[in-house]
Amino acid sequence: MRIRFDKLGVLIAILLGLGTLLAPFATFRANRIVPGSPRSILESLPPIWGTALLIALGVAAVLAILKTSAAARLAVAALGLLALMLLIGTAGSFLTPEGNTYARVSPASGFWTLLFAFLLLAADAITRMKPKPTVRVLLLGVTLGALAAILASGRWDALSLLKEYSGRADVFWNEAAKHVTLAIGSLVAAVVVGLPLGILCHRVRPLRAGVLNVLNLIQTIPSIALFGILIAPLGWIAVNVPGAYAIGVRGIGAAPAFVALFLYSLLPVVANTVVGLAGVPREANEAARGIGMTGAQRLLRVEFPLALPVILTGIRIVLVQNIGLATIAALIGGGGFGVFVFQGIGQTAMDLVLLGAVPTVLLAFAAAIILDALIEINAPLNRAGRTA
Amino acid sequence: MTVSPTTADRAAARPRARAWIPLALRALLLGTLLTFLVAPSIFEPILKPLVQDNAPAIYNQGSLFTLTLLHLRIVAIATTAAILVAVTLAILVTRPFGAEFLALSRSLVNVGQTFPPVAVLALSVPALGFGEKPTLVALFLYGLLPIFENTLTALTTLPPAVMEAARGAGMTDRQRLFRVELPLAAPVILAGIRLSITVSLATATIGSTVAARTLGEVIIAGLQSNNLAFILQGGLIVGALAVLIYDGLSALEARLRRRAGL
Amino acid sequence: MIEIDGITKRYGDNIVVNNVTMTINPRTVTVIVGTSGSGKTTLLRMINRLVEPTSGTIRLDGEDNRAVPGFELRRRIGYAIQGHGLFPHRTVAENIATVPVLLGWETGRIKAKVAELLALFQLDPETFADRFPHELSGGQQQRVGVARALAAEPNVLLMDEPFGALDPIIRAKAQEDLLAIQRLLGTTIILVTHDMEEAFYLADRIAVMDKGELVQYGPPAELVERPATDFVETLIGATERPFRMLSIETAGAAVEPGDAQGAAIAAATTQRDALAELLWSGRDAAPIIGADGQPIGRITLDGLVRRAARRR
Q1: What are the residues facing C192 on neighbouring strands?
Q2: Interface membership of A342 toward B (CB under 8 Å)
Q3: B159 to chain C: which residues are within 8 Å by CB?
Q4: What does the pLDDT look like over B97-113, one tens digit per residue?
Q5: A225 φ, ψ to 5°?
Q6: Is the CB of C85 less than 8 angstroms away from the CB of B1?
Q7: Exposure string (b/e) for C79-102, b if CB count within 10 Å is 16 or more?
Q8: ipTM of the predicted structure?
């Protein structure tokens, strides 16, 4: 049989080659803020492991180039990712001199290139396998579980990112909780207000254009400005409205961030509710009327279930967007992962930036996969298009 | 049967009767924006009540006009690059040669859109240092996605009968692309560009946290000195720019749509 | 002349067109019929190489159709499809000018050709040239589609269910117009349809495709009298046979000397329609008038009944 080549595989092999041969695997710095010096794979790892990794990468490149089944490619990608993850930890302890607490070892461009190459291979394999939503969530769970296991095992403790973390573990979880509360809390508030507002806009046609235009306008105000603008009115309310201070209303901190995220969230929720309800087939509605359902029954038993996938799509947009925007809250003292990002930028300490950015990306990514699965389960026949 | 022009015109004339209202509002917005940028001191009395006694009501650490131009410049450069790359990539994966990459590129776009702009910005600082560069890269990467997604959608949902006719008429692949596919896809591509620019205008303000010179400077100065007037003027200028550009592109898109008979 | 010689198309293990050989005479109308999935459209699309055959050759006037690049070949062959496929972003005139522009004709010649075709298809150039396709009715769009296919004066016109999207009344008119234009220009037309009425009305010769095979190829009368397979017989319909025979030829071909009473029938009417007229008006015979309106004889019920019967 003729050997067939895979075009994407060639690209992945090139990336693997570049990541292995031309870019450093790890960076070593004598302390937290001095410029680092690059270390290749063989320099960063004990000889046995370095050689083994080089051979493994070569084999992976060959396997990627050949046309093989998607499952086989996924297996190669998973093993490659696992090897990279474990060995970067090894590099950390190998490069750090015994007892030196100032030295910092971090993954360098070669590592990130290799990581990207394997992620690309995995994404391609998963795309070709077209897994069911439950399987996708399962894959996500396995991946996050593996990450958690590596973290818990202490294998990465010698890496600079984890050193940044260990210094502020309490703060980290505190900010994580604030970040999730901000993102999800504002989403819940937006759904509680937006859903009835959307239904109202659907029923009362003249309201629709006005409400949607106002919500659209809010979206054009940049997030840092909206956060800032809300400081004054909320500060005023905290001082002048009895009881407001007691329930947590403040001029700075989490309250304006919460309100800003809530305002941004309204448009996708309201717009998708309107679109979803408008998309309910006339016949379904007519049939519901024909068998004698009241207006409320129709809404709950016919219109709402049929519009649900589109509404869920709106919620997915909001959640992913909020997880990202919540980082901005740090600028007005609202907490969240943004605290590390902006502190890191301020101190030019990139590991600190990563400590804030990586969990944010993981969180957004996980939220997207879970909600996409939910949407697909709720719309088994016709995958709903994204609106707003 | 022919379309009678008289009935069509009459139907179109009715909404046109009040069409001047939004147009006038936009002109007013543009006028106010330009006046504010050229002679901000005129507006001082309005903004004065927002600040404490001695604080300045108008941004005084640089010209608002210059900052606006710099802001627009960053967005323009990033968006132009994003358009070129996104449209080229979308064309490549919809050709027979790149078909293998089509499904993957779709899922990559899906994944890419979950990356928060701040994270993209922060993550490009290690590679590029502070200043304009990381902002440009973040805006470019983030701007790619909506344009790529829309171009892909447009190029893969062209009416099959039209494509068949183009082939049957003896157009080469290149002639088909430039004379039929791209003109028909133009309105949808433009919608992607519009989305991309709106997001970029807002995201560029965050660039000021890594020392890029944009209108974000005004807002951040306001946050640091607790000056509500600064925050408000920075935010409203960006908002006004976004509204005007969004509207302009929407109008252009509607024109293209009509021209394309869609 | 178009010679199709042992042409086969397979996709993997699936044979769509199997070893078809047929010759199409110039200036005739050949209709390819068959059920959906019979390979008729694939066969048509191999003539202008929208589909490349797996094996076999097709010659146009003796020249192998692979002698030039596919796109150049297609510029020489007219192509009209169901749902017209007009370019929605171009005006009627620009649509018609598509192939002449590709061929690099000069502007004056293109303009003249567009005006000529619009007039030929009964579309006033003043009114229609600058309209966009979505501003036309279905029938008008279809006419522009055929005009576009004929713009570069091709010798051969391929049509894939060109009238499929039209309602019955407009379709009948479109078929009539097509025959008139074919006679005027002398174009060789190969048309694919699944509508047997249409096939019998238009065809000089009919090719019947079944599961990728060409099962019969001949004049319409031959199909009715001597169906090659059960499939052809089913396709024609046993109870339709006498009427199919009558719908092949015009009343003019059945004219007998003599005189008759009542309203006259035009010589161009099909014999089938003439029979219907006689039956409905309760007459044994009717006068026939030629294209100039002058009587040329009469048509009789007996004569038509004889023509409808199987020939020995």
Answers
A1: C32, C160
A2: yes
A3: 85, 88
A4: 888 888 888 888 878 87
A5: -70, -45
A6: no
A7: bbbbbbbbbbbbbbbbbbbbbbbb
A8: 0.81
Return the top range by mean pLDDT from A142-146, C168-172, C238-242: A142-146
In this structure, what token pair is assigned to residue C133?
A: 């396709």
Could you tell me which of C81, C52, C78 has the C-alpha nearest to residue C65? C52
CATH number belonging to the domain at A169-387, selected among 3.40.50.150, 1.10.3120.10, 2.40.50.100, 1.10.3720.10: 1.10.3720.10
> For A318, which residue in chain B has the nearest alpha carbon?
B114
Q: Is A123 on the interface with B (CB under 8 A)?
A: yes
Domain extent listing, chain A: 7-158, 169-387
Contacts of B243 in chain A (CB under 8 A): 217, 220
Q: Which of A97-111, B72-86, C73-87, C280-294 has the highest mean pLDDT?
A: B72-86
- Residues on chain B touching C48 (C-beta within 8 angstroms): 168
> Does the distance separating the beta carbons of C85 and B165 come in below 8 Å?
yes
Task: Give me the residue spans of the domains in chain B.
Answer: 59-259
Confidence of residue C18 (pLDDT cuts 50, 70, 90): very high
Rounded to the nearest angstrom, the gap between the alpha carbon of residue A201 and the centroid of all alpha carbons in its chain is: 31
Name the pLDDT band for A354 (thresholds 50, 70, 90). confident
Residues of chain A neighbouring B107 (CB-CB closer than 8 A): 123, 126-127
Res B180 pLDDT > 90 = yes
CATH classification (class only), B59-259:
mainly alpha
Side by side, the strands of the sheet bearing A37-39 are A37-39, A26-29, A104-107
Q: Does B180 touch chain C if contact means CB atoms closer than 8 Å? A: yes
**Residues in Cβ contact with C210 at an 8 Å cutoff, skipping those fewer than 6 apart:** C34, C35, C38, C229, C231, C232
Q: What is the DSSP letter of C289?
A: E
Residue A305, both tokens:
């279930």
Interacting residues of A309 by C-beta distance below 8 A, sequence separation 6+: A276, A375, A378, A379, A383, A384
**Is some CB atom of chain C closer than 8 A to the CB atom of B170?**
yes
Mean pLDDT of C130-157: 92
Could you tell me if B225 lies within 8 Å of chain C, comparing CB atoms? no
Give the chain B residue nearest C137 (alpha carbons).
B1
For C176-231, what is each residue's pLDDT tens digit?
899 999 999 999 999 999 888 899 889 999 999 999 999 999 999 888 888 899 99
In this complex, the residue of A225, A320, A341 whose CB is nearest that of residue B122 is: A341
pLDDT band at residue B3, thresholds of 50, 70 and 90? very low
Cβ contact, residue pair B104, A225, below 8 Å: no
In chain A, where does DSSP find H-type helix?
Answer: 7-21, 41-44, 47-65, 70-95, 109-129, 133-153, 160-167, 169-203, 205-220, 223-240, 254-278, 282-290, 295-298, 304-325, 338-347, 350-378
Over residues B41-68, the mean pLDDT reads 81
pLDDT tens digit string along B203-213?
899 888 888 89
Question: How close B91 comes to chain C (CA, Å)?
Answer: 20
DSSP string for A297-334: HHIIIIIHHHHHHHHHHHHHHHHHHHHHHGGGGGGGT-
Residue B240's nearest CA partner among A268, A217, A229, A225 is A217
pLDDT tens digits along A202-233: 888 888 888 888 888 888 788 888 877 787 77
Would the pTM count as exceeding 0.95?
Answer: no
